[in-house]
Specification:
- By secondary structure, this protein is an alpha+beta fold.
- The chain has one domain.
- The protein is 31% helix and 12% strand.
- It has four helices and five strands.
- A three-stranded antiparallel sheet has the order 2-3-4, with helices on one face. A two-stranded antiparallel ribbon has the order 1-5.
- The protein is globular, with a radius of gyration of 14 Å.
- It starts with 11 loop residues before the first helix and ends in a 10-residue tail after the last strand.
- The N terminus is likely disordered.
Length: 130
């Protein structure tokens, strides 16, 4: 995947997702609940998603929080706040208007009662937790 100026997209949010997610390093855990091998798997799976499905996701209207959301102080320790790409580290195998498919499961958006006051993974500022 490239974050070069030559990268073109019809959706400005895709460029923003790529730029900000790629600022996260696979060896530096971004929030509570994502460390070591789990964070490395989530990072790799998110990069693969950005390469293969981000354009389609943006076209379907998926939001930053639906994909990369976490709880503002507890990170992924509150899974009800988590976006599709920060939960398991599984690589996506497809996308539909209202769900992202993984090998063993799927993530459905627009679930009633799902919190809407999370933050994007790269915006996590939950304080010192390491």
């Amino acid at each position: 995947m490239s974050d070069s100026p030559a990268f073109l997209t019809a959706h400005p949010e895709v460029a923003a997702w790529r730029h900000t997610f790629l600022s996260l390093k696979p060896g530096v855990p971004p929030c509570p609940g994502l460390a070591g091998a789990k964070w490395q798997a989530v990072h790799a799976a998110a990069v693969a998603f950005l390469d293969h499905y981000a354009e389609e996701a943006a076209g379907y209207g998926w939001t930053t929080l639906e994909l990369f959301g976490v709880h503002p102080t507890l990170g992924v320790l509150r899974s009800d706040y988590c976006g599709a790409l920060v939960l398991s580290g599984e690589t996506a195998s497809g996308i539909e208007p209202d769900r992202i498919l993984f090998q063993r499961t799927h993530y459905r958006r627009n679930v009633p009662g799902q919190p809407t006051d999370g933050v994007a993974l790269w915006a996590f500022k939950g304080g010192r937790w390491l």
